[in-house]
Specification:
Elements lengths: L1 E6 L3 H20 L5 H5 L2 E8 L4 E8 L7 E7 L4 E10 L5 E9 L8 H28 L2
Antiparallel strand pairs: 1-6, 2-3, 3-4, 4-5, 5-6
Length: 142
């Protein structure tokens, strides 16, 4: 599934915010300090996911990001692989078209209307929070 959204933030601001989030999640999951440079070499780590009554081993692979353009993350579960792709395109000063694509290897059929609707609503909400955070950071630096 895919969703696109225009954000009131520069490509650089969005990219740095997403990278900081990826670094934070990686540090929390594997307990080791990494820096942005480490991501460019590709980072792969094992992570346990708590699904209520059972804990599942996953492998997270952060592929080499393209600065201010793309971040690609792959999460391998025992029965599926979820690919997430963040693509950023500059669209003027402090305007970025952010395209988020997520694929799930276990999906046998095309998602229905309601699945697509709720997916897009959830992702757009997440992007709006990112935009709000960036704007607040920009204002606090003035």
């Amino acid at each position: 599934m895919q969703t696109k959204m225009m954000l009131n933030a520069s490509v650089e601001e969005i990219y740095q915010t997403l990278i900081a989030s990826v670094i934070g999640e990686t540090k929390q999951a594997c307990g080791k300090d990494i820096i942005e440079k480490d991501l460019y070499e590709g980072v792969k780590y094992r992570h346990k996911v708590n699904l209520g009554k059972k804990i599942i081993d996953t492998t997270v692979h952060i592929r080499k990001p393209v600065e201010n353009k793309n971040i690609h993350i792959s999460i391998s579960y025992p029965d599926k692989v979820i690919e997430m792709d963040y693509d950023m395109q500059k669209n003027g000063d402090n305007k970025t078209l952010l395209t988020f694509t997520q694929t799930n290897s276990a999906e046998k059929k095309e998602p229905g209307y309601f699945e697509k609707f709720f997916f897009q609503r959830s992702i757009r909400s997440r992007f709006k929070k990112i935009e709000k955070y960036i704007i607040a950071q920009r204002k606090s630096q003035k």
